[in-house]
Amino acid sequence: MSLDTRLRQNALLWAGYLLVCGCLLYASKSRTLSITPNVGHNLSHTRPFSSRAHIRALESRFRLQASASGVGDSDVSGGEKIVVIGAGIVGSSIAYHLSKRGVMPTIIERKKVGAAASGKAGGFLARDWGSGPTEPLHQKGFELHKELASELNLSTFRPITTLSVTREAWGGAGDTGASWIGGDNAEEASIRLMDTNTAQVTPFEITTKLMEKATENGANLRIETVTGLEISEEEGSKVTGVHLESGETIPADKVIIAMGPWSTKVQDWLGVRTPMTGIYSTSLVFTAEGNEDVGAKIREEPRALFCSEDRYGTHLEVYPRSNGDIYVCGCGGSRYVSEEDLRKDQPAPGEEVADPGRVKAASESLAALAPQVAKDRNPEVSQACMRPCPPDAMPMIGGLPGYENAYIAAGHNCWGILWGPITGKIMSELILDGKSSINIKSFDPKRFGGRMPSLMGQRGRHKGSTSVGEQW
Fold first, then answer.
1. pTM for the whole thing?
2. Which residues are CB-neighbours of 295 under 8 A, at least 6 positions away?
């Protein structure tokens, strides 16, 4: 055997030895967070997902045990540390799709998974309601929901038929296929078929299941408050860390902002224009508990209703859930929260409260339309959340202008649940492949002006654009 051959064999042996040592060292590392299921709760249930008992079970699953150690490493993509800020449906989907491809991000969430709109929305899905650039989000998003229902073993996803309801109009219900609508003492309404290619999912279930699977795969979830981003002094176009309220700075090679309406904080953190309005609205849930006969009808006769405006000042959207509950939004009286207030946490995520006047109006309106569901009863759940709405009502998906490693995925308006999972897949493609399988040019964040010029050191006298004298 020649000397060269022996040297090559020895080199291979040493390489193998070092590889094994490295694997053992990595396996010994502790994660920053573990998720411990509550004893007695079996979340592999097959019975319908409940808006109350089963939600409590899922929340128990996310009992968090934080440690003082640093953030776990991403496992692929050159060992990059990828940080996702926000654990609504968009952030959870990003984590899920990255982890499916072997990249384990750290997700930082201020309160809990699905704390805001992702835990309180209606979950209506419509394949063919897109227009222009949003058509792929609708179509691909709808198909992805079907896939995820199987992959995540969701109990709440189901196809439904959607009806158009004109209130206080003669015309009758026709053959709606839903005996829980109308009946004795119901007000007159004209009901017609609107769409059959629609579906519904309970947002809290899919959001928590996405995150649950991501953490099972190895992603790290931390419940912390982000206060800002660290920018490299040498490279002003690169984010190097995420500042936490605790004083810790988490190192980051890539950062994705997915904080819903609060994503507008990027304007303060990075000086990039991210205009956003929070549409603050009330919603209700009438549960099947104590009303089992009607609940059975709702389970067996799923019909979503889009109603015209009525004398109660509402334009109800009514979504029947797979467990027999009825979700109601379109209660009227939505208010607009400015980006300035959002950046000041007024309100903070998960602290939105229902408007009692709109709860009363919507309850009376539903009781007039579907007395079997809501006559002489109050909703078991009265809540509020905010839809994140940019000025052009289209999402921001992509890299933040002026920064090579910062991204945003937010501003999904009233389609957050439909578009959220596909947005997570798009972001995983941008991070790992450098391009998206869907045309997202119209959603480029730079359409709002990009990086703002810093005023620091530029507030003295100027002759045109030229600084003159001392600047402060």
1. 0.83
2. 287, 288, 289, 323, 324, 325
